[in-house]
Amino acid sequence: MHQIIKNWLARITPSCKDVTHLVSQSLDRPLPWTTRLTLQLHYWICEACAQYRRQLIQVRKVLQQMAKSSSAAQQGDSQLSPSAKARLKEALRSKNQ
Question: Model-level pTM greater than 0.85?
Answer without folding.
Answer: no
